[in-house]
Design goal:
The structure is a single chain. By secondary structure, the chain is of the alpha+beta class. The chain is about 40% helix and about 35% strand. The protein is built from one helix and two strands. The longest helix is centred in the first third of the chain and has 20 residues, at about 1-20. The two termini are about 50 Å apart.
C-alpha cells in the first residue's frame, strides 16, 4: 500500500511539474493605432490581433 501511494504521488508531482514547465505560451496580441488623414477625412484606424 505504501509503495503504491508513493508511485501515485510521484506521478502526480511529475504531472504538475510538467504542466507548469511545458505550458503553451499565450497568443501574441498586438494593437496598432494609426492616424487617418486625407481629402475630407480625418480619424484613427485601430487594427490588431486578439
Amino acid at each position: 500500500m505504501a509503495i503504491g501511494s508513493f508511485i501515485v504521488g510521484a506521478a502526480g508531482v511529475g504531472t504538475v511539474i510538467y504542466a507548469l514547465v511545458a505550458r503553451p505560451s499565450a497568443p501574441d496580441r498586438r494593437v496598432q493605432v494609426a492616424p487617418l488623414v486625407g481629402s475630407g477625412v480625418t480619424g484613427l484606424s485601430l487594427s490588431g490581433r486578439f
